[in-house]
Design a protein that fits this description.
36% strand
Length: 158
């Protein structure tokens, strides 16, 4: 075998390995992004279903969590406080909300066991449609993505 032929084989093999690595990396990222999107939708759906335990299961129960809803002024940076506020809200408003939920315009960044997501949330309640910017920070805990920070800010209606 000549040296040019040998070099060509090495180059093709290296290119094939690099391409396989890239495809594997992209598929893994897509899988993680889907898991994050499912966690985000699950948290919101659980809230409107007034299912406290399901809602809480989407949060990291570490004391260093943040919660801000700009339209209501609800703000906290402590899991116990957030948990208690949501539990009281669900107990005083026990009927599930008749809501249609969809999310769009995702921008998700993943770095190890941390993720940052920005997206637009669309809620339809009876005759009302609400669009909001959603910002979430998530942490992977025991293989599951959990929320550690949430900011909700309504979009102005045109």
């Amino acid at each position: 075998m000549s040296i040019p032929t040998f070099n060509l084989i090495i180059m093709k093999t290296t290119f094939t390995i690099a391409l396989l690595f890239l495809v594997t990396l992209l598929l893994a990222q897509t899988s993680e992004e889907e898991a994050i999107k499912n966690a985000l939708k699950g948290e919101t759906t659980s809230f409107f279903n007034r299912d406290y335990n399901a809602w809480a299961s989407h949060w990291d129960h570490n004391s260093n969590v943040n919660f801000l809803v700009t339209s209501s002024g609800m703000r906290s940076n402590n899991w116990e406080e957030i948990s208690q506020s949501i539990k009281e809200y669900m107990e005083s408003n026990p009927d599930p909300g008749k809501v249609t939920l969809s999310n769009s315009d995702f921008d998700i960044s993943i770095n190890g066991d941390q993720a940052f997501a920005v997206y637009v949330q669309h809620l339809k309640l009876a005759d009302t449609e609400i669009k909001s910017y959603e910002v979430r920070n998530l942490r992977k805990v025991s293989g599951q993505w959990k929320l550690v920070s949430m900011i909700t800010s309504p979009l102005d209606h045109d």
